[in-house]
Amino acid sequence: MTNQKGFTLIETLCALFILVLSISLLSIGVSQFQLIRRQTFQDRQLEWHLFLNQLEKEWQNQIVIKVTQDNIQTENAKGRISYYENYQKMVRKRTSKGGHQPLLIKVESLTFQKKANSIVLEVQFENQERYRNQLPACFKEELKQ
Length: 145
What we know:
By secondary structure, the protein is an alpha+beta fold. About 35% of the residues lie in helices and about 40% in strands. It has 3 helices and 8 strands. The longest helix is centred in the first third of the chain and has 34 residues. The N and C termini lie far apart (about 105 Å). It is found in: Cell surface. One of its GO terms (biological process) is establishment of competence for transformation.
């Protein structure tokens, strides 16, 4: 009997304890991942910052022609005019040659306002989140002077 090999009761209990601990940690990790994912998709902050980065990069090579509360018209070096505007429940970029590109979705309202050498953007999303930012811009009137 002393020469037999196999698991003892203590070894089996230890292995079972490690298995239960691993499964419980895995379930906690999955639930935390789902919570983070849910909050990320409900929060529009990431989309807002990506939108601002895209606008800032595009406006480095463009001249702002006209600013109204609802839209902005810009012109690039090749003379192509772009319109940034509210459209249904999104903000889109539309070009003079047709077509459009959605930039922000689930938008309740977006306003543009000219202020000195910049444009102030204020947005309210459908989930009632509000954001405001001021981006530098080159205006056509400034080039004439």
